Queue: 2 jobs
Job 1
Amino acid sequence: MSWRRYFRRAKWDRERREELEAYVQMESEHNLARGMSDSDARAAAQRKLGNGTQIREEIYRMNTIAWFDALCRDIRYALRGLRRNPTFTLVAVLTLALGIGASTAIFTVVNGVLLRPLSYPQPRRLVRLWETLPKRSIYRNVINAWNFLDWQSRAQAFEGMAAITTSQTINLSGGGEPVAVDGAAVTTNFFDILGVRPEIGRTFTAEEGILGRGQVAILSHELWQRRFGGDRGVIGRKLTLNGGPVSVIGVMPAGFSFPKVPAGIWLSLPIDHSPLWEGGRFLAAVARLKPGVTVGQADADLKRVAAQLSKERPGFDQGWSAEAAPMLADTTGDVRTALLVLLGAVGFLLLIACSNVANLFLMRGAERYREISLREALGASRRRIFSHLLTESLMICVLAGTLGLGLGEWGLKAVLALLPQSVALPRSESIVLDSRVLACTLALCVLTTLIFGLVPLIRAGRSELQQSLRVRSRAASKGIRRAFVCVQVAMALVLSVGAGLMARSFARLAAVNPGFDTERVVAMSLSPAGRYPNAQAVAGYFERIVSEVRSAPGVESASTIQFLAMESESRSCFTPPTDGPLPPVSVQPSAMFSVIGPDYFKTMGIPVERGREFDGHDGLGSPTVIVVNAAFAKKFYPGENVVGKKLMICWTSNLPNPAEIVGVAGDARHQSMADAPEPTIFVANLQAPTFGNLIVRVKGDPAQIERAAVAAIHKVNPDQAVAKIRTLKEVVDDSVARPRFQSALMLVFAGVALLLASIGVYGVASYSVAQRTNEIGIRVAIGASRGDIAKLILREGALMCGIGAIAGLAAALGLTRFLASLLYEISPSDPSTLATVCGVLIASAAIAIALPVRRATRVDPMTALRYE
Amino acid sequence: MPRRESPLQSEMLQGTLDMLILQTLVLGPAHGHTIAHAIERGSEEVLQIEHGSLYPALHRLEDRGWIASFWGTSENNRKARYYRLTPAGRKQLTAQTARWEEVVRAIGRILKPAAE
């Protein structure tokens, strides 16, 4: 028995025919030689050989691989059956493909973001470290440099820990158009902790971590390709970063990145115990555990060190602690719930699709009782019939799986395109259809086949030959079918409630007034493009740029802000002046701090409620002035006029205290659209200069301003890169992109679920009408009115939907609490959403059932009676 | 796929026929017609085999790798399928013959018990 011969059976058989023919020829010649007549000789030869066809058949059978042959036959038979029923096939395949496709797409995302291990060696030993302030419920806070150094030297549980700054825009100039590149500074052991070697060149030496010695940079593979065309001679080349010379020492391999810190360039971070690094918290950290150490042990170890530090430096660290968390969970924590909710949603969708197809099969199965019984009577074994029926569902599944995989890939692209680049999911680079996804899709196919393919099988298995030949088993699978519809309705309801809640939550979020003008304000990011010996120089540079932009055509006003709304923020502390020594920093009240230029509020369209905003006279030599927002005034000086009050603020040491409040601005959202405005202190950029964002209020169309503004900036410095030019509307839209993405997907899923459930209700109701035509005919004949008939069918439908809806509501109330963290200003059991969703469900069920009811009321008693 | 017959009977007959075919081919390659007649003649017409049953047997033996086949030309210039013994077939024949003789001796001892 060989596969080769199996597939060449026909040729083989031809050869056997020749061989047998040769025998007959030889034998007849032999007989002729013995003196027989021509015809006798041949007949005798045939006799001697025996039945040639039987011999060939025997050999043919020997060459046949029986199970494979049976499978081929089953597949052929199944395909023929499906072709004969194109509507059934189409509906079943499309329904399943939708379910499989949606599940594949979402599972691909979940797999890429939540499940795939981080792409570093031994990723389970990597942890992220944070400072915490438990008494104010502040967790995952960035770290003070001195604290980090002390953790590094005192903690026992770690093989090593590295610090990294948040990503910042770096001005890369010299040799062509200046560009803004994302960059981050890291301690020199950063790459060793992650365990990644450079593609070419080397990583930092310890020496390069000393302040003033680290004029070296490591490039990402992507930047190397884009800017330097993958030239290996880039090693040792001098670049101009932020106006200073830096030489390239290495290029990291393709795909290397650190989560949430986009970087094309890595610089060394020269932290040490000098006073320069004493204050402030701004570092992120990653550490590798010693082999065998658990995260819990490491966390305890770190807390022990943090407790020591808080005793040693109470002025700065009092109340502060620390935490270590597994890196993967830490990285994906903020999207985990949302993704799992979506995964649950597609799971429901898939189950609805499965039960729909199972129902289709059941109805078909009921119609095929006779066929099956006949085949049984003709001698088909139970096993053959089972395998035949299973093949049929398998064919549907293979078709649906193939289509679903295609749909899934397309859906995945569509899903990812819903998210703007700037707010992509963490680890979105690892979202790919990998073998695990394929295995999962395959498993889904097998599972769905089992679910919808097995139920009719069990029924077929029970079919008693005699009985089913005699009577048409009418009510055979009615119970199961109804149960399936109830489940569908229930699941569609749960999904719709989830979608409804998320959509309403998003609508509320989108309707929030941020407190500033989003339409006519354009923001752009500036990074230092030259060496500035002192604050004066930075301030002067900024003043020139702003005044140049202000006089550009189409510009109404222009200003600056260090961290743009929705993107980043900084916090610090303040205290009213006292006669004695100031209280330690760690117990002073804190507020948000924002560094802004003159005319900021005018440019943003934020009202100044009292006093004034900064102007060009609030410079480095003049008395320190600050503006606060209404929330600040209300929280710290309720009912008082704060203008004229003096505060001691913790900001850069060049800003002399006390600072005088000169104005109160209206509240505007800064952290996010979902968070109410926080008490904020505004510091004048001309007094504490820093790079940041330029904001421009335009007279006309914001799209027109880009070129004029860039030209104006380049008039001041042609090496100044201008990045991320966008309107504040885009900034705000991007900030709510994730909730929009979640609610849009949920709405789509809920819509599909409702559609499938409606199809399910319709299918069962119309099948029931078809089956009961006879009964309806009799009822009409003995005087039932159309209304009675309609009631008959409606009652059945209403019962199914009612039970489904009640079960669904109960499940929804139980499940929606998982949504709570994703919802904005709406309760997970919001009654009006529940009511609306129930209304929609009832309406779609009513539409689905209307047609069968109509058909039932049109039944002509004569035709119906003749029907049987 | 062998047909389901009574296993004992089919195995005995099959084994015997197989051995006879292999034995015939020891003398050199031959085609089906020659093999059939050779077996008949060799047994002095005692073993009357149905010539047709030879072909499935040949097929089976080839399948097991004991014989190999090729198309050739017969003595009277006809196209014919020739079979020859492979080394594996030769080994098989030796083994089978030995076993056969053992069985024959055993049966002989039972049927003709040693002189009393």
Job 2
Amino acid sequence: MLKKLMGSAALLTLLAGPAVADTVKIGFVTTLTTPVAVIGKDMRDAVDLAVEHIGGKMGNLDVEIVYADDEFNSQKGKQATERLVLSDKVDIVAGYIWSNVLLASAPVVLGEGKILISANAGPSPLAGAQCNENFFNIAWQNDQTPMALGELLNQQGVKSLYLVAPNYAAGQNMVAGVERTFKGKVVGKDMTVWPSQRDWSAELTKVKSAKPEGVFTFYPGPAGPAFIKQYQQAGLAGDVPLYSVYTLDSISLPLFQKAGMETVLGTKMTQFWAPDLDNATNKKFVADFRAKYGRYPSFYAAQSYDSIMYIASAVKAVNGDVKNTDGMRAALKAANFDSVRGPFKMGNNHFPIQNFYERTVVKDADGNWTTAVGRAVLKGHQDPYASQCKMKG
Amino acid sequence: MDYVLLTEQFLNGFQLGIILFLMAAGLTLVFGIMDLVNLAHGSMFMIGAFVGGTIALLTGSFVVGVILMVPAMLVIGVVVEMTALRTLYPRDHLDQVLATFGLILFFNEATRLIWGPEGLVVPLPAFLDGIVSLGFGITYPVYRIFIIVIGLLVAFGLYLLVGKTRIGMLIRAGASNRTMAGVLGVNIPKLFSIVFGLGAVLAGLAGLIITPITQAAIGMGEDVLILAFVVIVIGGIGSIRGAFVASIVTGVIDTLGRSFLDVVLLLFLPANAAESAGPAVSSMLIYILMAAILFFRPQGLFPPKGAR
């Protein structure tokens, strides 16, 4: 009986063998439940569009995407990653919105010697001392965007700043990033409980009392609109300009438009990408995304689209031999593909060296609220942790 | 530390306390009278926000949303009590926790199916938008004052209902000694349905009036629920008066902690340590208070008369 079973199992493996070789299996971890699932949906839509653009093929291999839900929770994210790596046997793991989820999950993927590509989270440990030859980030390191914002504040002549951000890995990186480049005085700083705190009455009252020339904030997902709404309700919107990173995006702007919150118009932020960034790849991506889904893509979508194109470039470079990890690594290091952000390089720590642009909230020609890209605040910028990484470029 | 900041933070704390009171009032009645640990009370908070918010968006009037939310939540509360909770009364607390936790999952998923994952944005009614000056340089958002006024009115209404009416007398009798009340001919199942429905209305009201500030989101009730449990433990289980006092105390301590603790810590800690310890310690303050109350006065500040 046992022999028979083993025999048929062996037969099954034989049958399954060739099919596996013809497919590249990519695990994509994002948030598909809880209120922040709107981000996960945007990312999944972008991945689907990317797969459609490459005709479902990477080189001669069929693409199979296995989506996994991190439930906005680092432990659940780690378990989802374990399932992808150990039971689904994916070739590559990508995705990750949240820095804390990525930090919990990375050892699982890297411990199995598989390649891990972050499509959003860029926590400082993975960029510095804990950098890994199999880990690549196709978005940015957390500190970079706020560093650009600090520079923007200097250029705008802001002398005093109040910081309000959530108290978790990314929130701390964002605040540290602004403080790295901002030359004026930080008159106050509040780190709030994440993700439960949704009422900022105490913090906003302190802001009002401190009378700064600008306020910096970072609230990703649905918390962002809630914060900005209360900023307006507290009567601060007219008096103190609000500067943000990753808070106003194509997911939240339509909500503000619907609610008629005009004070959001003219608000400034910084980012490595913008929907109106002028290059052929981005134009095609934004136009097709809007045609297919009827809305502007968010930066989460742009990064997710890029990660699929990025993986495709590597799979092509090794002629479909995805088990050739050395070849894959070299190709990913070269990052030889057309990104929606335009040209960029991979640094020694496998984080991008890239431009960061000023973005201002405006109405587009059809009256939809979006952002207009300004000049590059930082050019060819590398994150400050790269020097702590032992890998050499 | 200037008095304007202090007063405004005190108002913020008071407003948080009002929301907690609306949650805790229902929770303490259900726990105190029916001896039911109801984790799904947070779901009522969420459903009130989504149902009332949808009515407000459809009719274009927030006030209509608030008014129509009351009968809607009463019906939902009574239906949940009759269908799901009735069989749980004789079971022990662990079974009730498990079953009502299941209800949380059910309601969260149902909300996601009906309204989608992105939640609901309910705009402020125009006449409540803006800032009002309270004199002495103190300014405060009109809408938060509206919340405080609504909460105080409800508290007064509950005081009249529980203290001066026949149904209130039955509720008090149930809270003090359920078995005795039943023996004396009080229709216990009917009383339970009314109490649960009332609790659902109060929780729904809290969820709805906070929505223009925080937006309605799936699972929004769970964090408030934890605070509400802290409140009823401090106030004494089954006591509306205790729930009111404890809510305000909890709201004010939590807000003042968030506002001034880092400044206080700076007096005897280096800047870096104070900065990181501030948020951590301030979020623990109310639990420290609860632990202290449990140690010195385990029955809570205002336990109902004759409660066991």
